[in-house]
Write a structure and sequence with these properties.
Bound molecules: calcium ion
Oligomer: single chain
Strand content: 15-25%
CATH superfamily of the largest domain: Response regulator
Strand order of the largest sheet: 2-1-3-6-7
CATH class of the largest domain: Alpha Beta
Radius of gyration: 19 Å
Mean pLDDT: 78
Number of strands: 12
Structural class: alpha/beta
Length: 253
Amino acid sequence: MCPKILIIEDEPAIADTLLYALRTEGFEPQWCATGEAGLAALGRVGFALVVLDIGLPDGSGFEFCKTIRARSAIPVLFLTARSSEMDRVVGLEIGGDDYLVKPFSPRELTARVKAILRRSQGNSGANFATVGTAVISPPSPAAPELPTPNFVVDDARCRITYRGQALDLTRYEFRLLRTLIGQPGRVYSREQLMAAGWEEPGASFDRTVDAHIKSLRAKLRQIDPTKDSIQTHRGLGYSLKEEGAAGDRRNDQ
Ligand code: CA
């Protein structure tokens, strides 16, 4: 079964490149040149992912993403002409999964598509709607709904308890860990973590995230030296390890 990918992009030359690159990698891409045509296609065909241009002739990709989100949890990869056009925070808030700045190499595109699909499939079973929800839904504000029994979040007090012990976290560490806990297994890029944790993401650097992750890890290890709850994904970012995975002791709380 070839995963079907919907491309919503008004420039034929870019669409051609996308179609070719995705076909070469074993996907079944379909191209729509406007947002409205894309929405109509989404209603007819079961796609695995949408590649969505931000500058479309009949509206903004952000707006179309909102409409898509209202109906479906399908992963969305934004395409943007300039990095300045891509508001990372907005893109993340309205449910985008990742973005690529033009011009990009076909290999870059297919790598991103595969990473998003891997991520969404790793989170759940067969149904894409369910899978997508697990990947995209914003962190739940209510601690009991979190699928991470080892962590208990008290949003009102900005406090997180790990294995029954309260962590002494800085503001940024709290925000980073809170984001990771919201969707265990989801890989967040450094940019996404910055968008979640910093008021002005552009003012920081990737190293800032790395430094806070390092200190978070040290604090978690003080409580359980045998376990590293935060996983590094080389070239991609970080995720919280899903509890119940191999080696995890689910019932030792
Ligand atoms: Ca365009």
